[in-house]
Write a structure and sequence with these properties.
Elements (H helix, E strand, L loop, with lengths): L1 E6 L10 H10 L2 E9 L1 H10 L5 E6 L8 H10 L6 E8 L6 H21 L3 E6 L2 H10 L5 E4 L5 H9 L3 E4 L7 H9 L5 E3 L19 H12 L3 H16 L4
Parallel strand pairs: 1-2, 2-3, 3-4, 4-5, 5-6, 6-7, 7-8
Helix pairs in contact: 6-7, 8-9
The structure holds zinc ion (ZN).
Length: 248
């Protein structure tokens, strides 16, 4: 099953185009799309466009835009039965360089991890330029249901996360990223998922990305592991259903 475990259908790039994008995705064989709301307003939109046939919501916020995070936590609590994951949440050391800002990110990240345990929801983790640090916190807090999205850290840290059953979702930008290919080499298929992160992380730099481009991720995984793309789609689909507890 082709499942896009992480994207942003509520992004301004897709304004007024959701119907068309869903249709094209279904045509391409995509069975489910997890759209991630970033912040309160966007979270409400993600809930609104979710039809629970193709589109399922996840609620979180960018770690470098944490204004009003308490409100997002309240929304997650109130809607916990209607969402499939908390995320993205995490750390971003690319956007935030100062200690004070990073400490704040860590403190709020811990609160989201706590919340995911309380509600028994999986986490989708953003960890730009902070893979090692995000994993340290997740390990220390004994988080169990974890998807590392578009992980940009070293493969050696990812391997430690695999030992704990963490999943890694691979975006179509693998087509232009040696780091992502190294990651796929080191992570077993049982721990891989497909994500588009659309509208960003397109296979071609500068282009708008779409959910159906997860096929590009699947093709690259197949090529690297020497298995058919069908096998990749089957196993990553099964992995997605399992960790997100999807009722398809
Ligand atoms: Zn994202």
């Amino acid at each position: 099953m082709l499942i896009d475990v992480h994207c942003h259908l509520t992004a301004p790039e897709f304004e007024g185009r959701n119907k068309e994008i869903i249709e094209k995705s279904v045509e391409a064989g995509v069975k489910a799309i997890i759209t991630s709301g970033l912040g309160y307003e966007d979270g409400l939109k993600a809930l609104e466009i979710s039809d629970y046939r193709i589109i399922y919501p996840s609620l979180g916020m960018s770690p470098y835009m944490l204004e009003g995070y308490e409100q997002v936590m309240d929304l997650i609590r109130m809607q916990s039965k209607r969402i499939v994951a908390i995320g993205e949440v995490g750390l971003d050391y690319w956007h935030v360089k100062d200690d004070e800002g990073r400490d704040r990110q860590k403190r709020i990240f811990r609160e989201f991890i706590e919340l995911s345990k309380e509600l028994d929801l999986p986490l989708v983790i953003h960890s730009r330029s902070a893979g090692k640090y995000a994993l340290e916190i997740l390990f220390e807090m004994k988080a169990e249901r974890v998807i590392m999205h578009a992980f940009d850290g070293a493969a050696k840290y990812a391997v430690r996360a695999v030992e704990r059953g963490y999943m890694f979702s691979i975006p179509p930008s693998i087509a232009r990223s040696q780091q992502k290919r190294n990651l796929v080499k080191r992570i077993p298929l049982e721990n891989l998922l497909l994500e588009s992160d659309s509208p960003v992380l397109s296979p071609i730099a500068g282009q708008i990305n779409y959910p159906w481009n997860i096929i590009v991720s699947a093709e690259w995984i197949g090529r690297i592991k020497g298995i058919s793309v069908e096998k990749v789609i089957e196993i990553t689909g099964r992995n997605a259903v399992e960790i997100l507890d999807l009722k398809l």
